[in-house]
């Protein structure tokens, strides 16, 4: 797979790490292993490891499967509680 021309901005990397932390925290609170989560979602354990470590972005379908397996809404996993978002260009 080709690499991105431009690296992700720092805030994207931070949010990906937050997502991974929420997946890991909820999984541990539910008392299940990465292997068990992988089995429940039909994914490979390595994918779960990469998501939790923030090394890989889960696709939307994977997020749906993970949220369902952890019995939380997708919004719980992707919410931003760290403060204001960066300004986005309006395209004017």
Q: Keyphrases for this structure?
A:
globular, 92 residues, single chain, mainly alpha, 434 Repressor (Amino-terminal Domain)
CATH topology (level 3) name: 434 Repressor (Amino-terminal Domain)
User: What's the architecture, going by CATH?
Assistant: Orthogonal Bundle
Low-confidence stretches: none
Describe the main β-sheet briefly: none
Q: On the 0-100 scale, what is the average pLDDT?
A: 88
Radius of gyration (CA) equals 14 Å
CATH class: Mainly Alpha
> How many domain regions?
1
Question: With helices defined by DSSP (H or I, 4 residues minimum), what is the helix count?
Answer: 5
Sequence of secondary-structure elements: HHHHH
Apparent shape? globular
Q: Report the count of strand segments.
A: 0
């Amino acid at each position: 797979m080709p690499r991105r021309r431009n690296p992700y901005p720092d805030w994207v990397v931070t949010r990906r790490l937050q997502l991974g932390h929420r997946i890991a925290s909820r999984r541990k609170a539910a008392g299940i292993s990465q292997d068990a989560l992988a089995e429940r979602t039909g994914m490979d354990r390595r994918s779960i490891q990469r998501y939790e470590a923030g090394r890989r972005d889960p696709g939307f379908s994977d997020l749906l499967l993970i949220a369902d397996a952890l019995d939380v809404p997708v919004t719980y996993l992707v919410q931003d509680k760290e403060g204001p978002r960066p300004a986005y260009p309006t395209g004017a």
